[in-house]
Write a structure and sequence with these properties.
Blueprint lengths: L4 E5 L1 H4 L13 H8 L7 E3 L7 H14 L4 E5 L2 H6 L3 H15 L5 E5 L12 H25 L2 E3 L22 H16 L9
Protein name: SGNH hydrolase-type esterase domain-containing protein
Length: about 200
């Protein structure tokens, strides 16, 4: 089986924060598929709420590899940083994820971690600790993506991601606007490469 776009990750990938009229999540994955001109059957979303990098290595990555996509999108790590933190395991898992997905000819993309701690209702001391973790995570992500040839969308450096309207009230999940903006950024990043054709 092969599809043109497969996304793996946590609730950011699942689509939380971008709710359809029927109550289901939409999110950036199908929005990106539409921007790439893909039919519904050519897009697969494996994202799940609460997923960590370990979840991806154990559960989502083997499925993603089996579908042999032209494009892979990966967004994961916030759950590691907030509630299941082990810096060595985190770095090892990212290396495993991006190293595996880049073994073929697919285009693989991911994104940096914006300042989510700024919006969380936590004590200042814990916020400072989280910001240290996020800074470390972005440094690891930059190194791993450069080494594996993964496209890195640096949303942490984009001022629009500091705007309140880009996020839901919980501070963790993008709003519908956030998902639309991310889909557009991903489409732009993919279009900047010419090595992969995603038509399906």
């Amino acid at each position: 089986m092969s599809v043109a776009l497969t996304a793996i990750g946590d609730s950011f990938v699942e689509g939380r924060g971008d709710v359809r009229p029927d109550g289901a999540f939409r999110g950036w994955v199908p929005r990106l598929g539409s921007q790439l001109g893909l039919r519904g059957g050519a897009v697969r979303n494996l994202g799940t709420h609460g997923a960590t990098t370990t979840t991806l290595v154990r559960e989502q990555l083997p499925v993603a590899v089996s579908v042999r996509s032209a494009v892979y999108g990966v967004v994961v790590g916030v759950n590691d940083l907030v509630s299941d933190y082990d810096r060595n395991r985190f770095a090892d898992n990212l290396t495993r994820i991006f190293g595996t997905l880049n073994q073929g000819s697919a285009t693989v993309f991911t994104a940096t971690y914006p300042d989510i701690p700024a919006r969380l209702p936590v004590p200042d001391r814990f916020r400072d600790l989280l910001r240290e973790r996020f800074a470390y995570a972005n440094a690891v992500l930059a190194e791993v993506t450069a080494r594996t040839g993964t496209l890195l969308i640096d949303i942490a450096a984009r001022p629009e991601w500091a705007r309140p309207e880009m996020w839901t009230e919980d501070g963790l999940h993008p709003s519908s606007l956030g998902h639309r903006v991310f889909a557009a950024a991903a489409a732009e990043a993919i279009s900047s490469t010419t090595a992969t054709t995603v038509a399906a």
